[in-house]
Amino acid sequence: MTSDTRESATMLESVTVPVTPAPNRMAVRWRDLDHLGHVNFVVFLTYLDEGRTAWLSSVLGPTFEPDQYVVAHIEVDYRSEIPAGTEMVETVHLIEELGRSKITFREQLRIVDGPMVAEGKVVIVMWEPSQHCSRPLSDGERSALDAVAR
Fold first, then answer.
1. What confidence tens digit (pLDDT) does each residue in 82-135 have?
2. Of 68, 92, 95, 117, which residue is 20 to 30 A from 59 by alpha carbon distance?
């Protein structure tokens, strides 16, 4: 373990965990729409990514940064469009499995007060940015994630 890894792991040892993180809401932007008049399918991945990062920040605390993980695998089933005029969407993230350095999520994208429009599975790997390699979950991270995985 590098000194950078030990330092970031130590910072997360005393994380306060919410019982269940709330869905993450975000505005649908005009630039998200395509020529068919609905949100482009690629933007669904952006919403899920932004929501996942916010979810991880709420669980792991203020020392968590988006550069502390990378996406290793993603699969998405599109269920419905997000039509023009939709103001807000929300994401829901549930932990399916915790590994040594990986976290597997089940995720949903929904229109606020409306239907689920996509669902999928994402595997992320905790990342050591200064070394450009994976790193194990710290004890504090594992504890915080275990608390919300139940």
1. 999 999 999 999 999 999 999 999 999 999 999 999 999 999 999 999 999 999
2. 117
Rounded to 5 degrees, φ, ψ at 62 are -70, -15
- Domains of the chain are 3-149 (3.10.129.10)
What pTM value is reported for the model? 0.85
**C-alpha to C-alpha distance for 89 and 96, rounded to whole angstroms:** 22
Each residue's pLDDT tens digit, 114-128: 999 999 999 999 999
